[in-house]
Amino acid sequence: MTNDPDGSTGPTDLVGGENGAFIDYLGLEFTSVEADRVAATWVARPALHQPYGIVHGGVHCSVVETLASIGAGTWLGERGQVVGVNNNTDFYRAVSEGAMTSEATPLHRGRSQQVWIVETRDGDDRLVSRGQVRLQNLYPS
Question: In what residue span(s) does the Thioesterase domain sit (predicted)?
Fold first, then answer.
């Protein structure tokens, strides 16, 4: 999330606004940011590879964490903030290049925690990775 010059913060900044250096480095382009769904596209490329020439698992985990956090924060809104407390990501298909599409949807949204599922698919709509993030809802004191 980013801070606008007027001091506001929030996931809505991500569509048509500043994303932040890490999100920009990942190359995430958000196509949907809603309380029930977050979607983004990105490109597997050499800068994201591990030494064996495929996208590093940490990149997949980062995409999962980012989309889940944005979705959870959008749903919680001005009531508070969210912070990830667990990220479990499985890798199903190694990729080295090409367009990726990632989509986050909620599995559970409660008073104190949320759980979001994020799936990433390649250009042929094959499942590349699937992650689950548990987030803590933090409320102002």
Answer: 52-128
